Amino acid sequence: MGAINPLKLIDVIKDAIIYLTNHYKARNYKAYLVNPPSGMSFFWGMAKQFLNEDQKSKVVFHGGMTADKLFHIADPSQVERKFGGTMPDITEFWPVK
Known about the structure:
Blueprint: H1 6-23, E1 31-34, H2 40-47, H3 53-57, E2 59-62
């Protein structure tokens, strides 16, 4: 497998953002990324160049294990303990309960 062409990657990110913006305009209030992998900031740095300010404001990163800002819109009982909430951590994902 060869090296990834950064320009091609930027084109793919841009195309994905355009698609999502055109087809899911009002679907996402905010996206909270709690304790994301370190490489995520690299991809976010590239992707946000193609977003307007409203779109950028919908993505909230939390580097620690808790999401204090998340509790402004979600009750702690809806957030797993591992992210600072009071809901038991989910360990079984399928079948959905």
